[in-house]
Amino acid sequence: MFKKILIANRGEIALRIIRAARELGIETVAVYSEADRESLHVRFADDDVCLGPAPARDSYLKIPRLIAAAEITGADAIHPGYGFLAENAEFAEICAASGIAFIGPTPHQIRMMGDKATARKTMAACGVPIVPGTPGPIEDVDEALEFAVKAGFPVIIKAAAGGGGKGMRVARDADDFARSFQLARSEAISAFGNGDVYVEKYLERSRHIEFQILGDTHGNVIHLGERDCSIQRRHQKLIEEAPSPALTPALREAMGEAAVRGAKAINYVGAGTVEMLLDANGEFFFMEMNTRIQVEHPVTEMLTGVDLVKEQIRVAAGLEMREKQTPSLRGHVIECRVNAEDPMRNFQPSPGKIDVFNVPGGNGVRVDTHAYAGYTVPPYYDSMIAKLICHGRDREEAIAKMKLALETFIVQGITTTIPFLGKVMRDPHFAKGDFHTKFLEQEGAYLLKELVPGAKP
Ligand code: ADP
After folding, report:
1. What are the pLDDT digits (tens) for 36-80?
2. Number of domains within the chain
3. Residues 360-385 pLDDT 10s
4. Nearest residue to 131 via CA among 281, 278, 289, 282
5. If we measure between CA atoms, which residue out of 83, 88, 90 comes closest to residue 166?
6. Per the domain annotation, does 113 fall within a domain?
7. Do 216 and 195 share a domain, yes or no?
8. Is the distance from CB of 365 to CB of 320 less than 8 angstroms?
9. Is 292 annotated in the active site?
10. DSSP per-residue codes, 341-410
11. According to the model, what pLDDT value does residue 292 have?
12. Average pLDDT value over all residues in the chain
């Protein structure tokens, strides 16, 4: 087993990894930017190293500094968390070349899934249904338009290197197409330094259903059930839950089997997620695979009792995973992402100092956060300040718990999405489990308005 893990990340996920390592008796090294000097992950790790100035490209993304930090502190493994370098195959390669274990899949596996166009080919080759689309990246706008016309509008133009909802454009008709195509390309170049895009049929009124995968170096690959992440804004997840209100046991089995087949095809090792779309007719299609731990992993942890981060560390050390088959899924779990954003101002980030911070608690309530009273949310990074996860014996109970937890989650000094999340919990469509990925922007548009500042959620 590893002796010391360097965590190449910040915020709540850095704390989450520190906890898992500590429980396994492993020491930790925190790295931080000048803006994160006062962060809890720096305080709670055994060792810490400053990487550089606040912007991520000068600190959290500086590979040579991370490797140097690991060498100086004697770390024998690096956990990348999510975001930053988590899906950077080159980083995984450099770790290996420096004799440091990368806690995640192999560079080859990251590459196979990191490029969305390659991932689609890999999945299609093992019989997993993929969203109808161009066979690979496409450069010529007329050729792309030809596909769109044949497939039928709307279509979605996606950056092959995409992530975080960037470099994605929906085109509703031929007039719209050329403009959207160019926009997606230029967004892809500026966000990922790679302008490759491909075109897919846009599935209206679909749900985002993803399966948690775990694999080890002994040939075991399983799924740990799904998460329904259809409550989104601009292709970004806000609320996740499991089990999905839309799945029957038969559908879960079919989708889970397809997800495992895809992961097995590349001998997947570590924690990963196979993301799929379930269309309005109940047909499912592979969308992409994330080769890392995800923000919403606690949903699965509460539903199954499996500690995914600990398993991730164990399998990276070459141990056999403890679960050999899908564990039983107990009750119902909902997660709300609490962001330092102002829903009344188009969800614009609202960094600043937190004066009051009261975290909810109680049976079945979990809060993963790096924030505290007196903490200043820096403007440089993601605006998520906490994840609130509630476990009930059924969906109704989980919603009831979440409503109460949101009411007692008091954050003062900055504006957060807590009141908005409370409104979603009270929405009749949400209560019925009747929603799709565009629900908030289309039918739920009223939820995005008319928030009374300071009102109870
Ligand atoms: P990213 O990697 O940027 O997160 P994804 O490929 O995971 O992008 O897609 C994010 C979201 O975009 C999905 O959850 C879904 O809401 C929407 N989406 C992506 N592809 C399609 C599609 N073909 N049809 C309908 N919605 C899509």
Report:
1. 999 999 999 999 999 999 999 999 999 999 999 999 999 999 999
2. 3
3. 999 999 999 999 999 999 999 999 99
4. 278
5. 83
6. no
7. no
8. no
9. yes
10. EEGGGTTEE--EE--EEE---STTEEEEE---TT-EE-TTS--EEEEEEEEESSHHHHHHHHHHHHHT-E
11. 98
12. 95
- Among 54, 2, 3, 11, smallest CA distance to 30 is for 11
What CATH number is associated with residue 329? 3.30.470.20
- 3-state secondary structure (DSSP) of residue 327: coil
Q: Give rounded-to-5 percent helix, strand, coil for the chain.
A: 35, 25, 40
Q: Are residues 257 and 174 in the same domain?
A: no
Bridge partners, residue 353, by sequence? 376
Q: What is the DSSP track for 299-325?
A: HHHHHH---HHHHHHHHHTTPPPS--S
Atom in ligand 1 nearest the alpha carbon of residue 167: 3
In a domain, 117, yes or no: no
**130, 168, 172, best to mutate for ligand 1 pocket (most atoms within 8 Å of CB):** 168
Domain that holds residue 394: 207-448
Can you tell me whether residue 216 is helix, strand or coil? Answer: coil
Ligand 1 touching residue 291 (CB < 6 A): no
Question: Percent of the chain at pLDDT above 70?
Answer: 98
As a whole number of Å, the CA-based R_g of the chain is 21
Vertex 80 angle, CA 77 and 83, to 5°: 175
Q: Are 206 and 229 in contact (CB under 8 A)?
A: no
**Residue 393 in contact with residue 305, Cβ under 8 Å?**
no
236 pLDDT tier (thresholds 50, 70, 90): very high
Q: 131: Cβ below 6 Å to ligand 1?
A: yes
Query: Would you call 52 helix, strand, or coil by DSSP?
Result: strand
Asked whether residue 174 falls in the same domain as residue 214, the answer is no
- CA nearest to 114, candidates 63, 166, 159, 170: 159
Q: Do 194 and 118 form a contact (C-beta atoms < 8 A)?
A: no
End residue of a domain, out of 201, 226, 242? 201
The CA 211 to ligand 1 mean position distance, Å, reads: 15
The catalytically annotated residue of 169, 292, 337, 366 is: 292
